[in-house]
Design brief:
elongated; alpha+beta
Length: about 290
Amino acid sequence: MESDHASGRLVGVSGDIQPLIMGPRLDGSGAGGNTTAIRDTDGGHWDNDTEFERAVGPFQFLPETFRAYGKDGNKDGVINPHNADDAAASAAVYLCGKGRNLGDREELRKAIHTYNLSWAYVDDVMSGIDRYDSLGRTPSLPSGNVGAVVQAALAQQGLPYSWGGGGPSGPTTGICCSPGGQDGRTVTGFDCSGLTQYAYAKAGITLPRTAAMQAGVGQRIPASAGYNALRPGDLIFYGYSPTADSTIHHVGIYLGDGKMINAPRPGKPVRIDPVTAMPDYAGGARLL
């Protein structure tokens, strides 16, 4: 989360990262959201700045914090926040501090909050944890029409997201343009509702085109009933208001065990995600 997996850098076999990852200068100017100046504590040793601090390395430690928690993760005799192994081991020590039990989800949330005092940040990190936990663990396929729908959706894993793309007959190019600027006309794949249209067509069910319209089909499962009310094969919705179908902006297919198959967003392929991957759960619909 702190560096998008050291995106754009090279990570050597020893864990050393090049070029170095440096946060904005914490001089109180507002860059990077910082409005409080933090004076230099390491003589510029790790952040190349002898006047103010910068967060350093893939885990974005402040030099002063890293001096207190730094560990030699790759056992080369050097403790370096710009080394992926050292930084990961140091973050683990920091998060586990004060006897925290990170196997307890609430204690884990509190630990992450000490790393960055933002509950939105905590939600992002927890969503990533849940997504990693779901990798490689596909729920068993149901039988009958439910199985046909789930299997059809799972078979599309890896296909790219295409804004306005896909439908009952399979992946297609889409339309222009997503809120983030993706021109679906240049990508062959699915958007979220195109994927559900395709999967349900395998069971002989024709769904309307958009996620909001699909919420009006079948037996509606209110968000207030919680995730436990869902069954494999149900549509699962996300919206800005859980009681207003017109605000629904995303749909997936529930797989069971807290997971769904969906086309998440531009730049991300069709994949299995935890149902907690998005924060605005708006219930589901049962058609089978």
